[in-house]
Amino acid sequence: MQPASSVGIVVPQTAHFTTPLTLKSGAVLPCYDLVYETYGTLNADKSNAILVCHALSGNHHVAGVYAEHDKKPGWWDNMVGPGKPIDTERFFVIGLNNLGGCHGSTGPASIDPASGQPFGSRFPLVTVEDWVESQTRLADSLGIRQFAAVMGGSLGGMQALHWSIQHPERVRHCLVIASAPKLTAQNIAFNDVARQAILTDPDFHGGDFYAHNTRPRRGLRLARMLGHITYLSDDVMGSKFGRVLRSGAFNYGYDVEFEIESYLRYQGDKFAESFDANTYLLMTKALDYFDPTHHHASGKLSDALKPAQADFLVLSFTSDWRFAPERSREIVKALLDNECRVSYAEITSGHGHDAFLMPDTHYHSLVRAYMERVAS
């Protein structure tokens, strides 16, 4: 039996689009699918809808479970549900799997209608701008002309931010959590090392590994291990694992000896079995490309954010060194330069970048309080 605070058993839906989508790269998707889930009830004037944008390895399964005894709820189940900060008794919440994803939406592993084979290397690169455009089409199909809020953490926060400038009239509130206006050189470097692990895996076959009935598990495993290190803080790794040895003594070899090694390899193996390598490449490139100032001669974030009309909640976490609080403060300053209404909080947390996924009482209280404003 599911707890009262859960949205319960949910069923994914698929929206099929036949109007061609021209991507920022110039490539065109003649048709595509978006898989999504909804929680709560859309009110009569369709004014209570909230769009949740997912991060790099996320998907449409934001909350709830797929079966009565399912032990794996949605990735933000602690945030979304009856009586939770994003209260599904008040709001109609939408989560979707972005284009290029590997959880049902059209992506590299999908069948290309033109060839009858998986897209593989032929699937075009996608950007945050492309995702936002496809999300507007999903909103149109649901009859939603304006969102009460668009929100997300990390890469999801970048999408929320871009919604506010690409379609300012369609967003009343924007929640940007543990995010940044663009990646630092260090972050781009981490992403490139992760991609190189995949690209140089002999089982990658230039992205067309589907035809070889294999997958680049080794490369994807290493990419996830590297990424996972950057999502955690030194304090969390120290408190969870320290220098604990699995056998209590040195074995003087290269197999797993420290608990942290065991943990990272477990996470890497699990991820390599459930995620698509081409999707990982696409998602990290979308992260790299995101930069609202790119097409502005001044190069100023305040100029890029001038179209924004929404009210904002921007949140950061003290131990998040990959999307550090100063990056969130850049967003806040640029919004204030444009006299936008902005609420900002820097939350003390030892969880690193992953803090935005954790059930932290103070963090959830801040989101809950802001959502009271959204509801009113």
TrEMBL record:
Gene Ontology annotations for the cellular component aspect, listed alphabetically: cytoplasm
Site residues by UniProt (Important for acyl-CoA specificity): 322
Molecular function terms, GO-annotated: homoserine O-acetyltransferase activity; homoserine O-succinyltransferase activity
EC main group: transferase
Keywords: Acyltransferase, Amino-acid biosynthesis, Cytoplasm, Methionine biosynthesis, Transferase
Pathway in which the depicted protein is active: Amino-acid biosynthesis; L-methionine biosynthesis via de novo pathway; O-succinyl-L-homoserine from L-homoserine: step 1/1
Amino-acid positions noted as binding substrate in the UniProt annotation, renumbered to this chain: 224, 354
Subcellular location: Cytoplasm
Domain AB hydrolase-1: start-end pairs: 48-356
EC number, as in UniProt: 2.3.1.46
Primary location class: cytoplasm
Catalytic-site annotation from UniProt: 154 (nucleophile), 320, 353
Reactions mediated catalytically: L-homoserine + succinyl-CoA = O-succinyl-L-homoserine + CoA
A single GO BP: homoserine metabolic process
Task performed by this protein: Transfers a succinyl group from succinyl-CoA to L-homoserine, forming succinyl-L-homoserine.
Record family assignment: Belongs to the AB hydrolase superfamily. MetX family.
Complex formation: Homodimer.
Protein name in UniProt: Homoserine O-succinyltransferase
Record organism: Sulfuriferula plumbiphila
